[in-house]
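fwd from M.: "can u put these together and see what the complex looks like"

so here's what she sent:
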Amino acid sequence: MRKQLGVDPIACTGHGLCAELLPELVTLDEWGYPILSDRPVPRGLEREARRAVTDCPALALKLGRAS
Amino acid sequence: MTYATAAPNLARTTVQPRIQPPPGGANGLPRLLPRQGAVPVDLRTHRERHGSPPYRGSSGRLIRVLQESGLTGRGGAAFPVHRKLAAVIEAGTKPIVIGNGAEGEPASDKDKALLWISPHLVLDGLQLAAEAVGSRAVGLYLHRNSRLQDRLRAALAERAAAGIDRAPVEIIDAPPRFLAGEESALASRADGGPALPRFKQPRVFERGVAGRPTLVQNVETLAHLALIARYGPGWFRSLGSAEEPGSMLCTVHQTDGTKDVVEAALGTPLWNLVDLEDSTAGGSGGSSPRANTAQAVLVGGYHGAWLPAWQAAQMTLSNASLRPTGGFVGAGVVVALPADRCGVAEAARVTRYLALESAGQCGPCFNGLPRIATVLDELAGSRPDPGALAAIRRWAGLVEGRGACHHPDGTVRFVRSALHVFAEEIDLHERGRCSARAVRPFLPLPADAPTTEADWS
């Protein structure tokens, strides 16, 4: 099953770690908040995506089922 | 605030009013407010007109009737009511039901008028919705307006004395904030916290107040529900269109600064609600428009969209008509902006207010809205920075869809439509001119809008 990144925008405090760990799917806006790719996580990046989720200091990044 | 002046202006509606909706297939208006309008309806008068709440005797049974009626939420989102009720039942046992009377939109008075004048229709609807989802835990969310709360407490006492309510109703305080009525903010407030929006997973109908499935319905929606339960879906559908049936309450602001709460059928031409006569005539003869001519119409309130007056004159009060232009009916706010005001300055004032009403919880909204407001303010002045328009457009794209609630999206809809509709005025400003001859603010804002963190509870 393909996964997709999501963010709880209230929990997110703009650390920006996700963009460092997963630049293929996450960029930062001019205020430092993540802009997520709307495509599902490619198979080759699933491990990096899981790491970004578990390492998020605010626990704001989520990995859910792709719609 | 008194509602003596909030009587529905029925002369403007397309359908001739009848005194009351008699059982069994009447049509016409008004449905929710009495014809004489300003007189609050007590329980005796209410029961003479409509009888007692038609309880079904078990949960679930009202849902099919509501599905056939096509009733959608009148708080702005127009979500099908039967689907929300069914989702709450499916989500689990011991649901909570809350009537949402928070009307933080400064340009809207219709919920306050309805609660003041026809409280028993709302309270009937609340009881019937509670029965429909099998709930005994019922609340009514009202602004901290002591007169309105006293009125509703008195109405609840009348009902308790008459023994017609099956579930006691608890009144919950809403702060005077724009977002107070947002569904997840309501759930947070009902849990004893601040009225701040929450992240929407799980949804309020799945796990809302006290972790229980929670049905939140706007008070006008409940009043329609109370009538549909009595007179049926066919009666409800005798007004409006097949896709958008029924009627809705609108708060209508005319160019002369007067306002009315009006009940109108969905699909009513906008020119029936606000005076667009001079714009539809099309033959102003090249002379400058009179101060009272509408230059633009705002539909859907401060999360809604502007239309040029000529285009509004071709539109109806329906999402089918408004959606292709980027607008929506929302909670029925319709404002005609007179020709002698600066639309850019009006939009800038409201955008500043909306930026201050951000809950400040989501980075893009917290950072983006104040910047948009500041540069829009600059556009409202003389010779703005040439990059101002592009900056607003970029920030609008950055905040859209990135909040926990719809506040950034609604604000962006309002701002983008203003940039489009007042483009000529912005051109004038860039050349150091402004067409406005009156500077007094037109769009209503709260005089003492709260701005501190303590003001969310």
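replying to her w this: The mean pLDDT of chain A is 95.
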